DNA sequence: CAATGATTTCAACAAAGATTGAAACAAAAG
DNA sequence: CTTTTGTTTCAATCTTTGTTGAAATCATTG
């Protein structure tokens, strides 16, 4: 397989994949492009390469920076801003896990905590009971997963998963 | 907090959440409704409760069944189909993990395997090198996560996470 | 501080995704 | 076989999300 093909396919695949994760296709493509680029890139280079609008590039880059997986870098004597992706895929995965935990898991925990202690108005005991069982279970699962992610994040991805696999096989 | 409120909030929250996960809001709501319902429900009851169209309910239920977290059940002497959710949240989480692995992780592994062994056409050594480093890393991470999920799935969620937390703290 | 170059914002537009509802289909009952 | 009841399909429509491009903002330079 030729370099240019392979590179394009990676960008396409990553863009495709990203849509399954609440991230726009363009963001995914930009991220892939930065991952495989040996040097930081300017927005103009990205526009050129992916044929997308300046506005879109600007917004996507900002969002990638907010996710913490792309960094602005300044090159001495250069006026333009340069962007580079995190190159360590484990670090990247952890950073994504950390953000998703914050954006998705933490709110669930909050929400389920509010739903504890129900006052059975017109409902039957069975109904109240079932609802309680569910919220309690969901809270339990969410809190344990949360704890697990904390540990994983603290100990660094590779170490964590390696240990884990060796311990639990 | 009153029962009816709490129930509605759970349904709203779950529907909201589901959109972050490539699942439509309606599907999430139906799932929440089935989770807290002590008895299996017919599509008519779901339509009534959530005020959504028959077609939507039919398609969403099918999809939930494909995900393996909702089951059709037949009640003797009844002509209608009844649907019930998996009630064990750990089982549910595992089933979702299993499906997501199949739908999202496995394709990445496949794709990265295709991208190994690049023929440097017009590209510089640095560029080829960077691309190779990336695809190799991604493949590595994906395969380890895959292995981890396999172990987790085999040993059952609760056991898995409990062990893991206790071992790695 | 005016001019130039770079970046961001945002209203208008486009694309993708979700939902509806009515027609087609399937299964059981009379 | 016909009717009744229940389920699925799918084109049309609505909703949500993503994208563009030009104007506004910001920053640097002479």
UniProtKB/TrEMBL annotation, chains A, B:
Classification via InterPro entries: ArsR-like_HTH, HTH-GbsR_regulator, HTH_MarR-typ, MJ1563, WH-like_DNA-bd_sf, WH_DNA-bd_sf
GO molecular function, one term: DNA binding
Organism superkingdom: Bacteria
Alphabetized Pfam families for the sequence: MarR_2 (PF12802)
Swiss-Prot/TrEMBL keywords: DNA-binding, Transcription, Transcription regulation
Domain HTH marR-type: 22-79
Record family assignment: Belongs to the GbsR family.
Descriptive protein name: HTH-type transcriptional regulator
Native source species: Candidatus Opimibacter skivensis
């Amino acid at each position: 397989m030729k370099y240019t093909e392979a590179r394009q396919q990676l960008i396409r695949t990553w863009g495709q994949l990203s849509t399954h994760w609440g991230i726009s296709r363009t963001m995914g493509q930009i991220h892939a492009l930065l991952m495989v680029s040996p040097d930081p890139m300017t927005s103009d280079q990205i526009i050129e390469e992916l044929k997308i609008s300046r506005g879109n590039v600007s917004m996507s880059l900002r969002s990638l920076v907010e996710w913490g997986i792309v960094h602005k870098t300044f090159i001495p004597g250069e006026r333009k801003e340069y962007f580079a992706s995190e190159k360590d895929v484990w670090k990247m995965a952890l950073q994504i896990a950390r953000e998703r935990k914050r954006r998705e898991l933490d709110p669930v925990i909050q929400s389920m905590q509010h739903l504890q202690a129900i006052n059975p108005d017109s409902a039957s005991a069975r109904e109240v009971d079932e609802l309680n069982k569910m919220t309690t279970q969901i809270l339990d699962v969410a809190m344990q997963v949360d704890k697990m992610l904390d540990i994983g994040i603290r100990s660094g991805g590779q170490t964590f998963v390696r240990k884990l696999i060796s311990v639990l096989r």
